[in-house]
Amino acid sequence: MAADIAEQPAGYERLLSAEHAGAIARVAAAVAERRPRHVVFTARGTSDHAALYAAYLTEIRLGLPAGLASPSAITLFGARPDLSDALVVGVSQSGGSPDLTEVLRTARASGALTLAVTNAPDSPLARAAELSVDIAAGHERAVAATKTYTAELLALLMLVEGIRAGDGALPAEERAALAELPELAARTLADATATQLAPRYRFAAQLVTTGRGYAYPTAREAALKLMETSYLPALAFSGADLLHGPLAMTDPDVPVLAVVGSGPGGRSMGEVLPRLGERRADVVVVGSADVAGPPGSPCPTSTSGTPRCWTSCRCSGWPWPWRWPGARTRTPRAG
Asked: Which Gene Ontology terms cover its molecular function (predicted)?
């Protein structure tokens, strides 16, 4: 898994190369020519979170209604929705999910334009679709997807922006910004902040993740990764939904991982972080370098210019998590 994570910068360079960027541009131009009226994504697991990110992009950048389909509606219940004006996108790292393949076959039979986004261009999913995008992440060793998730995000971003351009070609400003991504990823991976913070939470019994807008799908993905790699119960909430009830379960014994990006979604988290602070929740904020931590107790722990993290309780006066008077007993996790 560590090896997969370390390969992300090289994967971004490969995906942004003339060969792969050109292939995505051709697919984007073909989609733009068909002028779909709405977009339906279908995926499972980690790829479901990438699809959710793409749904945000589609509605915000293209102005088209977008949503995530439930594969079981077709595969278990035999539903045959009218998708004649839709673009139906199957997102799958392996491209081998039979239910997603069946969704694309059914959608194509109903007149939809179908597209597969996968790391396996010769997979059943890619063969079932009219168009396909290769995320070019290379072989992934671990079952827990890492580099394929971020490659899906980048490929879907390039696809949506190419559709928006009409001819598939990204504007020069966007190409220049994306060209910086491999170096930024390498600097982020070289930053020791996350490694330094990780031991702090080995006594945690559960955890909450949160974010809004483009960051919310990655907050959900973080919860999935915590569950499948650390066997730690983790619940993911939109920052807006967190304030409507679930906030009541946060306290000093429930760490919160907040994924806070720049832009409107990140700014809106400015309403969430103070509320978590009021409950004395142990908050780690992960975001770009200009993102503020919880008011009153921000602790920037990275000075390298990369995305950085804060943990609110580091400033609270307690020497270590789960060790203040009256804290409930926690059992350390192995490793």
From this structure: carbohydrate derivative binding
